[in-house]
Structure formats: structure tokens, C-alpha cells
Amino acid sequence: MASHGVSFDDLYRRSTQYRLWSYTREQLAQQRREVNEKGCRKVDERLTSTPEVSASSIEKVTMDEEIALISFHARSIAKLAKFFNMPSQVRATGISFFRKFYLVNSVMEYHPKLILLTCLFLAAKSENFFISINSFSKRIPKTTPESILGLEFEILQSLKFTLMAHHPFRPLYGFFYDIQNVLGPEVSTKELGSVYDAARNLINEALISDAIYHFTPPQIALACFKTVNEELTMKYLNKKFTNVKVEDDVPKSTDYDTLVSVITECQQVIKDTPNPTKDQAVMIDKKVQFCVNPSLVLKRKRDTNEPDDANKRPRVGAVEGGASTSP
Amino acid sequence: MNVDMEERQQDMCPICKTDRYLSPDMKFLVNPECYHKMCESCVDRIFAMGPAPCPYPKCGKTLRKNKFKTQIFDNIEVEREVDVRKRVSRVFNKVREDFDTLDDYNKYLEELEDIVFNIVNGVDVEATEQKLKEYEESNKPNIEENNAKRQKELEEFKEQEQRKHDLRMKKNLIERQIEQEAREMKELEKKEIINTLASGDGTQDATKAVSQVRKSMLKRSSARRKQLDEIMQALNSSRQAKGEDKKHNVPFTPFNGDRTSQHNFDIHDSYYDPFLDELKSKKEYIASGFEVHAVYDRVLTEAFTGLGCYIEQEKKELNDAIV
């Protein structure tokens, strides 16, 4: 391989996105399990430091609930970015920072509501979209510049200081060109344009899915194309990657069958993106709040003067039911 | 005080003691025989009748008028070395292409430097001069051929530069003409409108006249534009011819130049893309160096960067290898 020089794929293998933030499914699940356990231990620690709260009154968050909550808040990052009129690159990086942060930390350690603001601000900085911290925090109620900046270093540390995020937007654009190139007059520009627009929208969904951990940006881009218009995409892939002249000095890097199967898998992963409803998210959020700050339980007890457990049980069931339908 | 004296001496001819202060047109000349400087009028006076000895005390070298030249470098040493170098390299005039290996070429250069050094620093001058002469004798045809070749190359280069310069001048002229015509056109229109308003009738005729004028103007300006395009093309083609040589070289990479030059995509000259088409026609984008090809290159490169990385499979293999 080395004698053929460094290919584009080798370059990607040297990126931090590949080295540090790409996982197999088992690895990802393992990582999440560990993080969840870490979060539970943290809650236990908090409980021992506040002995006035009984351990039974605190409900810990499960792994699936964590995933649901994170994907809910990832969507709110997208909304917030739209509110600030940020470019899609910034939005995508913000989401990526946020999700990577929760691959290292549990929601029971840091509440996502604060983290997501800092992630978006950090992404704006790292993607060169300048916005001052004052004008940023002024437009978001109940924040101060300090509350946002205070978390910055923790996030950077969790990200292992890797701020470069490769998104599928540009590869999608590249394929938009290459399809014109390969298929030529076989596809009308108008049709291709509409397919491109739809695929671009789908990428926003893919950013919240686990596809970003299991697949490379060009693969995700092709998967989005294929979901929008399977016939066109298959025609392109077929023409591009089958019956390629195999020259001796060029290593065969992309094999048609493997590529198609990988893209199809990717499509499935994007389709399975968890999309919890607001109610579900609010439920989990409440639990998280108690986990993060157990003494809230006491306060609420005082406020409502009601036995806590009776009130909480049925809700928990509903949440768990909801989460399992969208793994 | 000392500096002052020196400065004065620099501006004074040591032979006739004429000062630059009194005759500002004075020029100093030197002769490569001994590099003693004197003013132009002294040279005329002393050497008009043919070769004469140098008027400097204790020099006594015989000088000829036609060998005198203006001093280019302040430092006589430098001036001398440059002259010697010029003389030697007229004889030792081979270039890298004339040698099979770099070592041979380096040896040749070393020899050249030795000769220059010897002559400049007065080491074995006679023997060195003899060597130079012998070399010249034995390689005469080669030397002449090489010199002719260099000369021709230089001329070609000059010609090319001249051509480019002419094209550029022509382009500027046409651009100015176009501007001028546009201005005239506006003025004319204004005048026409004022005339119509003043006369108060025959509006139809006035607009007709304007449109007629405009038509003829347009015809002229489009012809100019065509000319301009042609010139631009000629200019670009000469630039491209140069660029092509560069393309064959391996570009710099931080990976010791071991990047593959193989892509599995071709970049075309243009694609259907309304968004980019709009940008590339905007003046502020063009002025700031926006290049549509850079966009094509970047997005296509990214589309094929990592396409063949199958994470699931590769990470699993990696994991198994560690376990």
C-alpha cells in the first residue's frame, strides 16, 4: 500500500474523526454503557453527600433515556442555530460537539441544557462564524456570559481538543457534481437539483443519528442521495464503480458491492434516528434534574406536600415505554 | 573629519582635482587593467592620442581608452570580481543539461570557481590565465555554440515579454475606449432628452434618434469586447503554457511527496450550479480572488476522501488485533 502513496482514504484515516470518534456498534454501545454507569456512580456520590434525601426518591436515568434526551437536545441546537442565522457548517459542528461530549460524560453529570449553549458557541468559534459572547447570551434568556464560558474548557477537554469535524455537506455537493459528470445527459439538471436539496435536508437528520460514528461523510452523503432517489443513485454507483479499469499501480480502493452494502446499512441507521416527543423529553429532563441536584427533591416535597413516589411512578413507566419504541 | 575627507575624495577626481560640487555632470570611469578611477574629461585628455600609462603614481600600466567603463559597484574588489567572473563564464559556459550527472556538473563549477578565485586574489595568476586560454583554445567550437544558444534564448525571452507587454497595452487601450464610449453615450442621451424637452414636440423622433445612436454604439462596443476577449485569451494561453510545466511536478505535501496523484474523479470546467454561477459573476467575489475551480476541486476531493473507509470492518479488525 505504501508504495502506491497516500490515498484520500488514508488521509481520512489520519483524521481525528476517524481515529478518536469512529466506533463499531458494539464499541459505541459499550462506551455509552460505561458513561451511564459513571453517571450513576456520580449520582450515588451526590446522594451520600446529601443524606437528607433518601436514595429511593431519586430515579436514575437509563442508557436509552440518555440517548433520547441527547437527540432531543441536538435538535434544539439546530433550532437555536437557525434562530441565530448560523451557517449549516456551524450548526453541524455544534451538534457534533454536543453528541461527542455525551459520549464521554453522562447527562447525570452535566445537564444538557447548559452544555448545548456552550457547544453551539464553541462551534461558532471553531467554524469561524464570529459572534460575541455578550450578544450571544443576551439573546438567550436566563444565561450570562460566564455561565456559557464556564463550561467551555470542560467541553474542550471531553472533546480531547479535537475541533475539526468533517460533515457530509461538502461530499454531498461533490457528488452533485460527479453525478452530472458520470451520468451526463441521462439525468435532468432540474431533477438532480431537487434530489440534492432533499438529500441535504436529510443530512440534518443524519447528523443526529449514529451514522456519524459508524460511517464516513461521503458514505452518509451517498446514503442520503440513495434514500431520496434510489434509482438515480444506483445508476450512478453502478456506472462509477463497476467495470472500472483496474490499473496495476492503482490499488482498488472502492469496491462496488461493499460500498452499496455499507450505504444501505447507513440508510437504515439514519432511518432509526431517535426522535423523542417533547413530553418524553420533559419527563427524562425532570429525572435528570433530580439526579444532578438531589436536594431539589426536598424542595419539591415542601412545595407540593405530597408523597413523592406515588406521583412519580406512572410517569416513569410512560417514559420507558416511549424510549423503547425509538431505540 | 575623517569621514568628511573620504567623502570629499569620493567626489573628487584624483588626477585633475575637479570637484563634483563644481561640475555636477562629472562621471568617473575605471579601466579593468588597474581599476584606478578618474573622471571622464581626464580620460579624454590623457588617452585621446592612443594608449598611455596610468597617471596614478607607481602604477604605470598601459591603458587604452576603449577599455574604460563606468563603475557599477562602489567597492572596487566587487567590481573586479564581477568583471573576472564575466570573462571566465564566457568561456566556461556549460549548463546542467550538458552533463550526465550532477557530480560532473559540480566538478565543472568547482573548476570555474577556482579560476575566478585565483585571478581575483592573485594566486598563480599566470598559470591560471594559461589554463583558461588552453581551455578556450581546445573548446572553441563548443563555447561559441553555447554562447549563441544563450543569446538566442535571451532574445526569445525578450521577444515574448515584448509580445505580452504589447497585448497588455492593447487591452488597456480597448478598456479605456469602452469606458470612454459608455461615457459619451450617456452624455449624448442626456443631450437628446434635453433637446426633446426643450422643443416640446416630436417625442417620437427623439427616442428614435436615441435608440439609433445606441444601436450603433452597441455594435461598436460589442466589437471591442470581442477584441478584448481575444486578447485576454492570448494572454491566458501564454500563462497556461507556463503553468503546464508546473503541473508535472509533484505538489508539496506534508507526507514527503508520497501522495497518490491518482483520483477517481475528473474535474470538469463547469457544472450546472445556479448558486455558484451567481457567485462567480459577482464583482466583489472576483476581485477578492474567488476561483470556481477551487470549489470544484475541494468538494470533489472531499466527496472521495474516506469513501473507501469501512469503519465497522476496519475498527473491528483493529480491535481484534489488539486483543
Automatic annotation (TrEMBL), chain A:
Pfam family, one: Cyclin_C_2
Leader sequence residues: none
SUPFAM superfamilies (UniProt xref): Cyclin-like (SSF47954)
Extent of Basic and acidic residues compositional bias: 303-312
Alphabetical keyword list: Cyclin, Kinase, Transferase
InterPro entries in the record: Cyclin-like_dom (IPR013763), Cyclin-like_sf (IPR036915), Cyclin/Ssn8 (IPR043198), Cyclin_C_2 (IPR031658), Cyclin_N (IPR006671), CyclinH/Ccl1 (IPR027081)
GO MF term set: cyclin-dependent protein serine/threonine kinase regulator activity; kinase activity
Annotated Gene Ontology cellular component terms: transcription factor TFIIK complex
Residue ranges annotated for the Cyclin-like domain, each copy included: 75-157
Gene Ontology BP terms: DNA-templated transcription; regulation of transcription by RNA polymerase II
Record region (Disordered): 300-327
Domain of life: Eukaryota
NCBIfam families referenced in this protein's UniProt entry, alphabetically: ccl1
Protein family membership: Belongs to the cyclin family. Cyclin C subfamily.
Name the record gives this protein: Cyclin associated with protein kinase Kin28p
Species the sequence originates in: Cyberlindnera jadinii (strain ATCC 18201 / CBS 1600 / BCRC 20928 / JCM 3617 / NBRC 0987 / NRRL Y-1542) (Torula yeast)
Lineage of source species: Eukaryota, Fungi, Dikarya, Ascomycota, Saccharomycotina
Automatic annotation (TrEMBL), chain B:
InterPro entries in the cross-refs: MAT1/Tfb3, MAT1_centre, Znf_RING, Znf_RING/FYVE/PHD, Znf_RING_CS
GO biological process: nucleotide-excision repair; regulation of transcription by RNA polymerase II
Molecular function (Gene Ontology), one example: cyclin-dependent protein serine/threonine kinase activator activity
Transmembrane segments: none
Keywords of this entry: Coiled coil, Metal-binding, Nucleus, Zinc, Zinc-finger
Gene3D superfamilies cross-referenced by the UniProt entry: Zinc/RING finger domain, C3HC4 (zinc finger) (3.30.40.10)
Residue stretches making up the RING-type domain: 13-58
Coiled coil: 140-191
CDD domains per the UniProt record, alphabetical: RING-HC_TFB3-like
Main location group: nucleus
Secretion signal, residue range per the UniProt entry: none
Pfam assignment, any one: MAT1
Domain of life: Eukaryota
SUPFAM superfamilies for the chain: RING/U-box
One cellular component (GO) term of this entry: transcription factor TFIIK complex
Localization of this protein: Nucleus
Name by which UniProt lists this protein: RNA polymerase II transcription factor B subunit 3
Lineage, opening ranks: Eukaryota, Fungi, Dikarya, Ascomycota, Saccharomycotina
